[in-house]
Amino acid sequence: MPGSCHDVTCLRQSSLWKRMHSQQQHLLFDRGQYLLGDSGYTSGERLVAAFRNAGGDKDKTDFNTCIAHVRIANEHCIGILKSRWHSLKEVRTQLKNRAENQYLVRWVRCCILQHNFLNRRRDDWTEADGPIEVEVESEVQIPDPPTPPLDERAMIASGRRRRLEVQSECLAYMRNGNGH
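^ DDE Tnp4 domain-containing protein, sequence as received from the core. Prediction below:
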């Protein structure tokens, strides 16, 4: 998708979205796991979004703050990844077709996999140190599931229930002195 597309549009067009709403969701999520989204997203069973308008409601405001802290931690992780892999700081290619997009996705995945591998070894190597050699097994291909018919109202209702569950857990954790 072009960079001008909204994140929600990109998600809804992705194979991730299809898998999140299919019988294959167990391949992505363990019981109780979900994605966090900002208020631009609609909550669902596997995606919990911040409230669009907290309207002075302390619980909603605290929940949105909790989500914001997680997002900041995520941004820090991306910054650390980019500090090791300078090639990720600025992608210097225009994506003209699907093949170029797939190449870029593979490049980013390789950087992430090697980053995680080096972290497990507690190795402080960076891309500037020169090439490293890593044997890679063949990639397992998981076919895209057929797009299921989505009952939009049921999905929204389920998402609201899920967000309230997560909100309750988050607020209880925060109010028991565990911070954000």
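The chain has a mean pLDDT of 80.
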